[in-house]
Specification:
This protein is α+β, with helices and mostly antiparallel strands and about 900 residues long. Helix 26 links the parallel strand 22 and strand 23 (about 835). The longest helix is centred in the last third of the chain and has 48 residues, at about 635-680. The chain starts with a strand and ends in an 18-residue tail after the last strand.
Length: about 900
């Protein structure tokens, strides 16, 4: 037997290129699936190209082909001759309909059709197909498959998974009368059967069929097209039982190959034959609609983790959320048995999608549903979470217990939990005091400086922090919970009892509390400005000088230098995206602080600093309004005063405890940076900062002996490349849903297109009063942008790192945030008119627009469109949206 001809029962020699169709049939040869007998002529039997080549077969191969064909027998001695190109019917490219095929070929024309199929591999159609998909033109030669012909009563194709809808559990069977060529060519409509995983026919669509392909051995392609009588054309081409058999056949091939398959089949004399099988190439970009629904939202968490976040930070944050909210459930009265039964939800509070952190809202709702009273108080809990959109009914039905008795049991449980809340509220001041003791002990300077510690000592130090603080964040968590409760109740009372329609009264009542550490940086900046303002040369140096120039100047201003160093000692870990471990802090680069001081001095140097008594006056005026509104309502006045007192205390402690979180994260950041330096020194990382591309357990596991890979260098390089791609590519939507496996087929885009606000004005929440008319500066990334003194800063969101831009701003407009946001608090302290929660402001406003904003009413109005100009990096261009 010639080496270039392989029969269905032959052993496949190593390195033989059978092509897609024949290769699949050869692999299926060891199964019991009903496959017509076949043989294949390998590409090496033919000339290497068509150019100037006469079609010749190796000596004796023509006779061998005819002999092999006679050995097949088949339906009245006829054969199907098909292409089997090397890269045809693959997982990525099917070549469907691109190469010639011939049916009902008699043996005396077999060699002629073999040549025709070979030549079709060099057609202009094939060349165009290859170029369009970036495939090489060097692998044009095709193997030729010869198969025993089946004269079908019905035939068609079947998919083991739905290639259009993406349902992996639905097999799709398409059927026509006669040969399947009428379906492939599109000349005849096909019946379609959808078969579920349990074998039931879920849906059938019977087409009106007008023609049928039948055998015509003497025609060019072996097919005759004949009309179907109307009475037969409306009948199904398959019974349900046969459709189920075909679906089972498709699923059998899928199980064999380990991936979904697209098969051709034929029904002849009551028997179903498998003619060919190939991978389904269209499923990749499709999510399975039957998969588990997950909702993702970054509306709240993006203020802490905006943009791309590295694996170290995500794994660190994820472990904290898991531990903290497990403890939160216990504190709220959820039984240990229930916590343990829902142990899978706590590690899934956060997700990382294309490098960005999102809340898994399903997990959050599952957590809320564990809390006593969810079924009777769901709306209030959603308000506390800040969720703008409710859950889909299919999810809600699984969370809310059905029936009157279930709600009654939940209400009784709420009563018991309320007693626990009262206990927690009464003991909260003591909890906070004990937490500070534990915190200060854990963050006290280590006996051996981090810079001197060995890797095992650094790992042990992290485990100590984990044990003392990271897994025991109880007091801040309870305080946050009560802050949300009292804030929400105060908001309702001011609206209902004091006619506070725009929220400004509640805002003013909460400001000026004092003792809030968020306001201290601004106070210290003002003190530094006071030392700087008499010296215009020093002011100019801080605004435009280099770090080296400023550091050379500092010894000549000892009081300024001392207070500047004191600022860094206390607030050096506050920076842009301060909760990201990879962020550069003021310790790493103090220039944002120095420039901010210079800009503040330049702006207020001659006119004096901002109005530092503003908050107290706003608060006093607001208290007078409340006194008038509740003048004769003694009980209401007592209740309101009690709620307001605790709202102020909880909001104050919330800000102060968040600063302690910054301190803790700063220690963890320095710890891992030192570990990165050790790994780099030993050649285990290309760069010390590559530590951020490892997870916490990968980095510590390398030290502790639990890492699944010791090749940290290549792992970090791979991750860095992946995350660089995320930074360069389009980000996910702010809110979207996924089905099934999150990273399979989901586009991470919202089903609702983003709506860019229109009109001449927008409404937000006023945070600091004052009317400003000035040009806008839309800044998306403060690291690569600057603001000119007197402009209105327009930003998507702010964290402490943005505050360095505030001194130059005449006003601040923020797309996200609330009255409790860091930016709102600091703007009030610095006396800068500010509005937050202005939906779409960064797309509506453009750099250079003349805007008028009212920090009391929360209204911003466009007075004049921006002139054309070239934006700096990190800014929106004038005249275009984001």
């Amino acid at each position: 037997m010639p080496t270039h001809l392989i029969r269905h029962h032959d052993r496949i020699p190593p390195g033989a290129h059978l092509g897609g169709k024949a290769g699949a049939l050869a692999r299926l040869g060891g199964t019991t699936l009903p496959i017509p007998e076949w043989f294949v002529i390998l590409p090496g039997a033919f000339p290497p190209s068509r150019d100037g080549a006469e079609f010749r077969l190796e000596a004796g191969l023509g006779d061998a082909i005819l002999a092999a064909a006679q050995g097949l027998g088949g339906e009245a001695g006829f054969f199907a001759v098909r292409s089997s190109a090397v890269d045809e019917d693959g997982a990525e490219h099917s070549f469907a309909g691109q190469l010639d095929s011939f049916l009902f070929v008699p043996i005396d024309r077999l060699l002629e059709k073999v040549e025709a199929v070979w030549r079709s591999g060099f057609s202009e159609r094939i060349l165009a197909y290859r170029r369009e998909r970036g495939l090489p033109e060097t692998s044009l030669a095709t193997a030729v498959l010869v198969q025993c012909m089946v004269e079908a009563d019905s035939a068609g194709v079947a998919f083991s998974a739905d290639p259009v809808g993406g349902h992996r559990g639905h097999a799709i069977v398409s059927a026509v009368f006669g040969l399947g060529s009428s379906l492939v060519s599109g000349e005849c409509n096909a019946d379609t059967f959808t078969v579920g995983r349990d074998g039931r026919v879920l849906h059938r669509a019977i087409a009106r069929k007008t023609t049928v392909h039948l055998a015509a051995p003497n025609s060019a392609d072996g097919i005759a097209v004949q009309p179907l009588p109307p009475t037969k054309g409306s009948l199904p081409a398959l019974t349900d039982e046969h459709a189920q058999t075909v679906a089972a056949l498709a699923r059998s091939t899928a199980r064999f190959f380990g991936r979904p398959q697209d098969i051709e089949w034929a029904l002849s004399g009551g028997k179903i034959w498998l003619l060919q099988s190939r991978p389904i190439t269209s499923l990749g970009p499709l999510a399975d609609p039957d998969g588990e629904l997950t909702l993702w939202d970054n509306a709240n968490i993006a203020e802490s983790y905006s943009g791309v976040t590295t694996p170290l930070t995500f794994s660190f944050a994820r472990s904290i959320y898991e531990a903290v909210y497990r403890e939160f459930a216990r504190l709220m009265g959820v039984s240990e048995r229930t916590v343990e039964a829902n142990r899978d939800l706590f590690p899934r509070m956060l997700g990382l999608i294309r490098g960005q952190v999102f809340y898994n809202l399903i997990s959050w709702y599952r957590l809320l549903a564990l809390l006593p009273g969810f079924s009777v108080n769901r709306g209030f809990m959603e308000q506390m979470m800040g969720v703008k959109e409710g859950l889909p009914p299919e999810v809600l039905a699984k969370l809310v217990p059905a029936g009157r008795w279930a709600k009654l049991r939940d209400a009784l449980a709420l009563t018991g939990a309320t007693l626990g809340l009262v206990r927690n509220h009464l003991t909260l001041p003591g909890q906070i005091t004990r937490f500070y003791v534990r915190l200060n002990e854990a963050l006290s300077p280590p006996a051996v400086a981090l810079e001197e510690q060995r890797p095992d000592e650094l790992a042990a130090h992290y485990r100590d922090l984990e044990r003392q603080l990271l897994l025991k964040w109880d007091a801040p968590l309870v305080n946050d919970f009560f802050a949300m409760i009292f804030y929400g109740v105060a908001k309702k009372l001011t609206a209902r009892w004091c006619d506070d329609r725009d929220g400004s009264l509640q805002n003013d009542l909460l400001c000026g509390e004092g003792g809030m550490i968020s306001a201290e940086p601004a106070q210290r900046v003002r003190e530094l400005v006071a030392l700087l303002t008499p010296d215009e040369t020093a002011t100019a140096l801080l605004c435009t000088g280099t770090r080296a120039e400023i550091e050379r100047w500092l010894p000549s201003a000892p009081e300024f230098a001392a207070r500047y160093q004191a600022y860094l000692d206390k607030f050096g870990d506050r920076c842009l995206e301060e909760l990201k471990l990879e962020s550069l802090t003021l310790h790493d680069d103090p220039m944002p602080l120095l420039v901010s001081i210079g800009q503040y001095a330049r702006r207020f140097g001659s006119a004096g600093a901002a109005d530092t008594g503003l908050e107290k006056r706003l608060r006093a005026d607001a208290e007078k309004r409340v006194a008038v509104a509740l003048e004769k309502r003694h009980l209401r006045r007592w209740v309101f005063t009690w709620v307001l007192k605790h709202a102020r205390a909880r909001v104050r402690d919330r800000e102060n405890l968040r600063f302690e979180r910054t301190r803790l994260f700063g220690r963890v950041r320095r710890l891992f940076l030192e570990l990165g330096k050790r790994f780099h020194a030993e050649g285990r990382l290309e760069d010390p900062r590559d530590i951020f591309y490892l997870s916490v357990e990968e980095a510590l596991g390398f030290v502790e002996g639990t890492a699944v890979s010791a090749n940290l260098r290549d792992l970090a390089v791979l991750r860095r490349k992946e995350f660089d791609g995320y930074r360069a590519g389009p980000p996910p939507s702010n809110r979207f849903s996924t089905r099934g496996a999150v990273h399979l087929g989901n586009a991470f885009r919202s089903a609702q297109p983003a709506v860019v606000p229109t009109g001449d004005s927008l409404q937000g929440i006023g945070c600091c009063p004052g009317v400003v008319r000035a040009r806008a500066r839309v800044i998306l990334d403060p690291r690569t942008a600057a603001i000119e003194p007197g402009e209105i800063l327009v930003a998507p969101r702010t964290d402490p790192g943005w505050i360095m831009l505030f001194p130059s701003a005449a006003g601040v407009l923020v797309e996200h945030g609330s009255l409790l946001s860091h930016s709102a608090i600091v703007a009030r302290e610095m006396g800068i008119p500010a509005i937050v929660s202005i939906e779409g402001i960064t797309q509506w406003a453009r750099t250079g627009d003349l805007l008028e904003m009212d920090g009391t009413t929360g209204v911003v109005r466009r007075v004049e469109d921006a002139p054309r100009a070239t934006p700096a990096a990190g800014e929106h261009p004038p005249g275009s949206a984001a």
